[in-house]
Amino acid sequence: MDANGHGSALSQGANTVLGSPLRLLTGTLLFVATVFCISTMGYVRAGWPLGDAAYMVLLTIFSVGYGEVRPIDTTFLRIWTTLTIVLGCTSMIVLTGALVQVFTLFQFRRLLGLDRMQTEIEKLEDHVVICGYGRIGVQLAMALAEARHPFVIIERSPTKCEEARAHGHLSLVGEATHEDTLRQAGIAKARVLASVLPDDAANVFITLSARNLNAGIEIIARGEAPSTESKLFHAGADKVVLPTHIGAERITELILYPATGKAVGSDGAVSDMKRGLHDLGLELEVVTAIKHGALTGLNVRDAERQGNGAFFIVQIDRANGQSIAHPGDEVRIEPGDSVMLVVRGSRLSAGAIFSAPARPVRHGRSFITPGR
Q1: How far apart are CA 186 and CA 129, in angstroms?
Q2: Which DSSP letter does residue 366 get?
Q3: In DSSP terms, which residues pair with 152 in a beta bridge?
Q4: Residues facing residue 299 across a β-bridge
Q5: Alpha helices, DSSP H only, in 124-174?
Q6: Record: fold of 3-120
Q7: pTM attached to this predicted model
């Protein structure tokens, strides 16, 4: 069993042990309340006003001994008071013991969790520090956990921090903007800091603090407003991610390259090639040549020339099932062809060229549309 599993087992054990004092405390409280109510009703039955009866029982149970509220001058009252003293004082002794046990075990469980967590964090090296456990932080933690990459989460909300711990993630409750919290997270030995809070000002401040504590750490920061990007770079961020911009760009890519997902998802070799090209700063995309499209009807050489170096064509799959790998310069792009591109620079501009309608070209005294 790993350290996280061992810690979870200890925590579960503490919870099991804690269950007994909690049950004892609950049962004792119910017993005290029952004694209080029954004893009070006994004094009321003896003719006492309700307020005096309740006050008398309260003084008796807690053994304060301020004196009798009214004279205890009958056999019934003496027997009733004796029973109240015996049952009430005994129940209060048990109640005090149960409270001590509960507080002690809660503190033990808290120390157990925090000490184990801090010990595990201190062992980390070349790990990732995630600031914020919101929507992006949750997804990032899941991806890193799946990749078995060490990381620690800083989250100011105790509830979210407990949620992270429930998923087996190392986490600290604290403000990531505080240098002491960053030190607790092992910022000095960390390789990457990801500040993914939805607060631009906080991300800038965290970036400044992290860069001051570890000059060599790679900082990836989230920005909400486009104007924050330059501030984050000035603060020391190595990379800035704008979720809104990425989301819009991704939707645009799905519009311009609807065939890429099918081609990549159905072929493992193509998927591996796409990842390899991405590491080199290139992207693999698949477009469908539309009828009367700007590049439909052109040969490979002319199509690449129209792209001004934004892409080059590596494969053409015809609608009839024919596949042309490494097509020559004179191979024409026909309507319905799936054209595989290696894109450099803006993927959006490359896709826009293929999806744009063909422009009429002057041919003598008239204009003709290529591909017709």
Answers
A1: 8
A2: E
A3: 129
A4: 332
A5: 135-146, 158-166
A6: Helix Hairpins (1.10.287)
A7: 0.49
Q: How many C-beta neighbours within 10 Å does residue 222 have?
A: 25
**To which H or E segment does residue 186 belong?**
none
Q: How many CB atoms lie within 10 A of CB 134?
A: 15
Coil vs helix vs strand at 216: coil
Angle at 363 between CA 361 and CA 364, to 5 degrees: 145
CATH for the stretch 250-368: 3.30.70.1450
Interatomic CA distance for residues 127 and 186, integer angstroms:
9
Please, are residues 371 and 358 in contact by the beta-carbon 8 Å criterion? yes
Would you give the DSSP letter of residue 358?
Answer: P
Q: Quick one: CATH architecture of 124-241?
A: 3-Layer(aba) Sandwich (3.40)
Pairing relationship of beta strands 338-343 and 283-288 according to DSSP bridges: antiparallel
Q: Angle at which helices 50-61 and 75-123 pack, to 10 degrees?
A: 60
Distance between CA atoms of 7 and 22, rounded to whole angstroms? 22
Residue 11: the pLDDT is 44
pLDDT of residue 70: 83
The residue extents of the domains of the chain are 3-120, 124-241, 250-368
- In whole angstroms, what is the distance from residue 161 CA to residue 166 CA? 9
Mind giving me the DSSP string for 112-137? HHHHHHHHHHHH--S-EEEE--SHHH
Angle at Cα 94 formed by Cα 88 and Cα 97, nearest 5°? 140
pLDDT in tens, 165-176: 889 899 988 999
